[in-house]
Amino acid sequence: MIIAVWGTSGSGKTTLATQLGCELARTKLSLVVAGSLTHSSVQHFFGITERRKSLKKVLHDTDRLADNVINYQQQKNLFLLDLSSVDNCLQQTDITDDQAEKLLSAAKRLFEVLIIDCAVSYNNPITRAAFLHSSQVLHVLLPTPEAVSFALSHQILISRLNLESKMLLILNQDRKTVRYKNIAKILDNDIDIALPFCCGINRSSTIGVPLNISGSRSREEGKYLAKLKTLANLLAGSKSLNKRVLGYEL
Questions:
Q1: Is position 17 within any domain?
Q2: What's the maximum distance between 2 C-alpha atoms anywhere in the chain?
Q3: Which site from 1, 57, 148, 203 is most exposed, i.e. has the minimal number of CB atoms within 10 Å?
Q4: Does residue 244 belong to any structural domain of this protein?
């Protein structure tokens, strides 16, 4: 299963990808792939600063996948694939669509779930491959005019790629200041899940421990985690982890 998490800059797509990765890894062998080709974008959500392992190495040689995924020690079924914290952003411009597709194909052979933290732009090869091969696209949307404008400007793209049938619209950081029906009417699309506003999300990304690992400390955090679990169950169902035998230790 490939899940593409996508939205405008600052919408919370990386936060959702990491939180969702932790949730799905409770029952499935999961890999969170950072779609950014300019800087390490996922590691810091887990308090990791990796210098040796890099997405760049895998894009140039998919046989090196197992050597470059990072196992998150607090969730044994969860792995990360990101640029190194010292990769030069000026050297990440030569990635092709073929490399991105080979990356997803190699990862699917090892993991039950791939969560792709997509770049904002469709010009990104990993984002294009994720859209093409995903079983579900999560469009993360803040209840703001800018986010609605972003969604409207991409409606033709979504239609041409035939993404409507596999796209879920996720309203993020909802403060109950905008009626769902108003946003749905503007976009001509229903809101599938509304994730409530949660201060603990900002804290968890700062300390490097996802909220569903540290646990809820308040009612609002509990509500957020409950909604996140609902989303995870919607995506994965209630099937237990299908233990697979890997040819080597990740």
A1: yes
A2: 52
A3: 203
A4: no
* Any domain includes 245: no
pLDDT at 249: 35
Q: What are phi and psi of 6, to 5 degrees?
A: -140, 150
The dihedrals phi and psi of 222, each to the nearest 5 degrees, come to -65, -40
CATH of the domain at 139: 3.40.50.300
Domain count within the chain: 1
DSSP alpha helix (H) spans, the chain: 13-24, 55-60, 65-68, 97-110, 125-133, 145-153, 155-160, 180-187, 199-207, 211-214, 219-236
Please check whether residue 85 is in contact with residue 49, taking contact to mean a CB–CB distance below 8 angstroms.
yes
Q: Is the pLDDT of residue 128 over 90?
A: yes
Domain hosting residue 31, numbered range = 2-236
- Domain assignment present for residue 145? The answer is yes
CB-based contacts of 87, cutoff 8 Å, min separation 6: 39, 40, 54, 56
Beta-carbon contacts of 13 under 8 Å, excluding residues fewer than 6 positions away, are 5, 6, 7, 117, 118, 138, 140
Confidence (pTM): 0.89
Residues 182-241: pLDDT tens digits? 888 888 888 888 898 888 988 888 889 999 998 888 999 999 999 999 999 988 774 433
